[in-house]
Amino acid sequence: MGYVLDLRKQVGHQALVVAGAAVIATNATDELLLVKRTDNQLWGLPAGSTEPGETTVQTAQRELTEETGLTVGKLTLVDVLSGPKFHYVYPNGDIIDSVTILYRGAITGGQLVTTTNETSAAQFFAKSALPTALTPITKQLLLGQ
Fold first, then answer.
1. pTM greater than 0.85
2. Residue 72: strand pairing partners
3. Which of 9, 21, 91, 125 is disulfide-compatible with 60, CB 3.0–4.6 A?
4. In angstroms, rounded to a whole number, what is the distance separating the alpha carbons of residues 134 and 36?
C-alpha cells in the first residue's frame, strides 16, 4: 500500500477515495480463502489498493500472493462496488471510501503462508461455514450486508 501510505503523509486521516481489488479465491473443493487482518483482527478476502500503473487484475493477484503465498489462474470479474456501504474507518483513524473491483479465481499454485506483516492467519472455509467476524467490506462483498 505504498501509494496510499504516501498520500496519508500529506492528508492525514481524512477520507480518501481508494480504488482496489479483492479476490474470491477457491480451492479444489470450492472453499473460500480468507485472511485474518492484523489491524482489526477480522477475517476478509485477500485485497488491497491499486498502485500507480497497475491494473486491478494485477492488484488482485499481487495482494493474494503477498497475503497468502498462493497464486490464481484466470480471474473473472464479479462486480464493481462502491458507495456508502464501502465507507470504512481503520482502527488507526484512516478513512476510505473504497471502490472495490471483485474478482473470482481458482488457486493454481504457491504454498499457503498463514502469517505476514498484514495477516495473522489464512484459511479456507466452506461457504456455509464462514467466520462471523468478517470485515465490514467483506460482509458487503460476500453477503451483501
1. yes
2. 107
3. 21
4. 9
- Where in the chain are the domains? 2-127
Strand duo 119-125 + 47-49: pairing = unpaired
- CATH code of 2-127, in short, is 3.90.79.10
Q: What is the pLDDT along the chain (145 residues), one digit of tens a residue?
A: 588 888 888 888 988 889 999 999 999 999 999 999 998 999 999 999 999 999 999 999 999 999 999 999 999 999 999 999 999 898 899 999 999 999 999 999 999 998 898 899 999 999 999 999 999 889 988 988 6
CA distances from 63 to 15, 59, 108, 128, 144 (A): 22, 6, 15, 25, 22
The C-alpha cell 497475503 sits at 67
